[in-house]
């Protein structure tokens, strides 16, 4: 293209440009606090509308009062001063969505923070959206394989379910979520990990681990760090689920991890108190239940007419000294379809993942288990329940009748089997095989301490020699012939 | 709980009471108003209430207040021309701000009519990119 054509093109554009008078509705800042501002004017401002402060800083109107408008500021609030002019934008807060987001680390507004350049998406989704209604949904019927034996067998999670991971600090809550993400490789699942109020060092470690295991190929990480303003922590989970909704609308399955919602509730409490909303129990505002229910209600399994996509939510809640009766834990327990309860005692006993199988439940996932797992897990659940009752007598082992002794013995073997190191998720067919072997007594000749070793050898043996059997189990086939083959494999290994 | 009365409400009340009063009666009304402010511990807010009153009174009597910002001082004819567009009773404050480069920016209550050269250029820039 010659210079002249460029000049002509430019001239044409400039000639075509129409001069218009911009009409803007404005207000004046009368008060600025930590991350919030109060303004006069803005008479026609709508709830949750974006406001533009000088210097390209945006805010969201949260309080519409008679004389003033209260807003939280997204970004640097230190440059905003009293008397500044605030403009209405007429837009609702939205985040970029699309396949371009996969593999990226973004902040709560969807802007890249991984140094790999700007993300150019074609679409934006509103951060706040009403959850899909009854008629667009379908029952949960496909499994999410976490790769963790104890969870997949006893607390199964289905696609579209909301399963809470709850426990004290340092009990391995994040580890379960990360293992689940790692295990989604080749499972046709997109993952979104939302880090709320986490240390940046922890997030960096997670990103590195996911990259190392190749999980970043299907994962987006949304970060609202500990040093970001409270408004970012407040909206990050909503941004994450908005990105997930895009994939669900395309008919894909998505897993969203919110790590953790306690910190989001803290951020919301901070904003609410600064905006002078009346405090309630534990100083949380009155609508803190709605804060979490509207977020988790957006997890769904859509029916065929609506594309059949799903959003599975794994919210994480941190308790203080195992107290699940605090305000936020009880709220989120009642919202979700079950919880995975982690305990410090178990953790230090060496039972990791430190699950308390007694009070952990999954209210809908059972219908999503594949058939062989359902059969095998039934026996495991029963054995574990009996073991919990008899565990107290275990120290009088010598005085017990042989039947009780056998039950306790099986229980300890099972507990040993359910231990699993971090970052080593196991395919579901292998899980079925080992659980079957242990619960049917094939491992009784090994000492309890040798179980982990024997398990490893058994899996090696079965993958080498009985590959077709594993394929059948993975597909969900289960009948007498399959069981017979499995039995045969077990006895062959023990010989 | 006693409901808080806003400055605006005081101003509106004052306007309603004093509207059309003259001489001795006006003085009496103002005296009573000040006593009322004392009763509600609102004397400190006096200046703000007067500002609200001014705004309200102007609105009631149909006076429009404009804030006209331009890059250079505008001639009286231009100013009158602008004022006429908005109505008969217009009070204006003129401001000079070189940053807008040219054109005018008119502020009316909580609206801005932006016809400044700077904004136009910014729009053009966005159009070209």
TrEMBL record, chain A:
Domain ATPase F1/V1/A1 complex alpha/beta subunit N-terminal: start-end pairs: 23-90
Molecular function in Gene Ontology: ADP binding; ATP binding; proton-transporting ATP synthase activity, rotational mechanism
Family membership noted in the UniProt record: Belongs to the ATPase alpha/beta chains family.
Source organism: Candidatus Magasanikbacteria bacterium GW2011_GWA2_37_8
Record's function text: Produces ATP from ADP in the presence of a proton gradient across the membrane. The alpha chain is a regulatory subunit.
UniProt domain ATPase F1/V1/A1 complex alpha/beta subunit nucleotide-binding: residue ranges: 147-362
Gene designation per UniProt: atpA
EC number: 7.1.2.2
Main location (coarse class): membrane
Residue span, ATP synthase alpha subunit C-terminal domain: 369-493
One of the Pfam families matching this protein, by short name: ATP-synt_ab_N
Site feature Required for activity, where: 360
Record: residues binding ATP: 167-174
Cellular component aspect of the GO annotation: plasma membrane; proton-transporting ATP synthase complex
Catalytic activity: ATP + H2O + 4 H(+)(in) = ADP + phosphate + 5 H(+)(out)
Keywords of this entry: ATP synthesis, ATP-binding, Cell membrane, CF(1), Hydrogen ion transport, Ion transport, Membrane, Nucleotide-binding, Translocase, Transport
Stated name of the protein: ATP synthase subunit alpha
Membrane topology recorded in Swiss-Prot or TrEMBL: Peripheral membrane protein
Origin: domain of life: Bacteria
Compartments it resides in: Cell membrane; Membrane
SUPFAM superfamilies per the UniProt record, alphabetical: C-terminal domain of alpha and beta subunits of F1 ATP synthase, N-terminal domain of alpha and beta subunits of F1 ATP synthase, P-loop containing nucleoside triphosphate hydrolases
From TrEMBL, chain B:
GO cellular component terms given for this protein: membrane
Signal sequence coordinates: none
Subcellular localization: Membrane
Keyword Zinc applies: no
Entries under InterPro entries matching the protein: ATPase_OSCP/dsu
Chief site of localization: membrane
GO molecular function term, any single one: proton-transporting ATP synthase activity, rotational mechanism
Keywords per UniProt: ATP synthesis, Hydrogen ion transport, Ion transport, Membrane, Transport
Protein name: ATP synthase subunit delta
Organism the protein comes from: Candidatus Magasanikbacteria bacterium GW2011_GWA2_37_8
Phylogenetic lineage: Bacteria, Candidatus Magasanikiibacteriota
